[in-house]
From TrEMBL:
Keywords: Kinase, Membrane, Transferase, Transmembrane, Transmembrane helix. Residues 166-243 form the Signal transduction histidine kinase internal region domain. It comes from Algoriphagus halophytocola. This is Histidine kinase. One of its GO terms (molecular function) is kinase activity. It comes from the Bacteria. The chain crosses the membrane at residues 12-30, 42-63, 75-95, 126-145.
Length: 357
């Protein structure tokens, strides 16, 4: 027994209903209104013509259009359709004479008059030609639409595969970037305060758990992302001196919306990487506001030059560039990212708005 999918069953049902309606309107409705005793041969001829149209429809749709027209063989297609039209009309003419239909129809409409063979009416052949061309036209349109839908589905699948591959690559770049900076911070702490370094390692282990389990997913809960942000900030506080002023305002999510994991990390990293000086006073401003399904994220920090020989100087903003790319892939038309430098204040700022609906 053939097991058809629901979509396939619906498609078959639509074809059956379509042909039933077409044959009823074109081949049955008019003859039934004649109010004469129509001979059986006429209905045989109508049934034969209906079967012939169905065969022409599916041969053209399933084989001829895909293998000839859509392969660019336009002249062959037009020539074959023209020859098919002549053949179609010829077969119907032969069928009429084989069934003696002209004589039988004359007796049905004029039973008192003797039958005298007359030249065939051209109007009947024109009607048959129109039926043939309509069948060819509809089947060609259906085949073309199906080909377009198939190509579009393939294009979407390829785009999705490309996006998934690209996102995996971008996340793979972000993770080493994050660990590189964090391990540098802990290494610096080991020379100053072993206890703080131990606390930092505990926080890092909790953050690593988040990275290992949540970052493998396409989305995580916003509450977990916010917890990760808080852990990161607390970790960074351990290495800051009294010269750094932190202005932190982070909302706790009331609704657990879904968000891409580690999306905000590069902006935070840049704040602490470029906005902290061991010699001059500095201030870092971080604000995360959640209103319904919209997240507003803002950072501001002073700009201090980074040692040219340090690994951080060689990274050249990998995290920020990748985050821009992730936002464009994951939240097209649902985010707004602005950033820049305020030369008068020697300050770098970032404004990010994301709609998580």
């Amino acid at each position: 027994m053939i097991n058809l999918s629901p979509k396939r069953r619906v498609s078959i049902l639509v074809h059956i209903l379509g042909w039933s309606m077409l044959c009823t309107v074109l081949l049955l409705l008019s003859p039934l209104s004649w109010r004469v005793d129509i001979p059986m041969e006429f209905w045989i001829r109508q049934l034969f013509m209906a079967i012939l149209l169905v065969v022409i429809f599916y041969i053209n749709m399933l084989w001829f259009v895909p293998n000839v027209l859509l392969k660019g063989k336009h002249a062959v297609f037009i020539l074959t359709v023209s020859l098919g039209c002549v053949l179609f009309v010829g077969v119907l003419i032969y069928t009429d004479f084989f069934l003696h239909l002209p004589e039988l129809m004359h007796k049905a409409f004029n039973p008192d008059e003797p039958y005298v063979p007359k030249p065939r009416r051209i109007s009947g052949d024109i009607f048959n030609i129109m039926l043939y061309l309509m069948t060819i036209g509809i089947s060609t349109s259906v085949a073309s639409v199906q080909k377009w839908q198939k190509d579009e589905a393939l294009r979407r699948e390829l785009d999705q595969q490309r996006i998934n591959t690209e996102l995996s690559y971008l996340k793979a770049q972000i993770n080493p970037h994050f660990f590189f900076n964090t391990l540098n911070n802990i290494y610096a702490l080991t020379n100053l305060d072993v206890k703080k370094a131990q606390e930092a390692l505990l926080k890092l282990s909790r953050m690593m758990r988040y990275v290992l389990y949540e970052n493998q997913k396409n989305e995580t809960l916003l509450s977990r992302e916010v917890s990760f942000v808080n852990d990161y900030i607390e970790l960074m506080k351990m290495r800051l001196t009294d010269k750094v002023t932190l202005n932190i305002s982070i909302d706790d999510p009331k609704d657990d919306l879904a968000v891409a994991p580690m999306l905000l990390l590069p902006f935070l990293e840049n704040c602490f990487k470029h906005g902290v000086s061991s010699q001059e006073p500095s201030e870092i401003f971080i604000k995360l506001e959640i209103m319904g399904s919209t997240v507003f994220f803002e950072t501001r920090n002073h700009i201090f030059p980074v040692n040219k020989d340090s690994p951080e100087a060689k990274e050249n903003g990998i995290g920020l560039v990748n985050t821009q790319r992730r936002l464009s892939l994951l939240y097209p038309n649902k985010h707004r990212l602005k950033f820049g430098k305020d030369e008068s204040k020697q300050e770098y700022w970032v404004n990010l708005t994301i709609n998580l609906e």
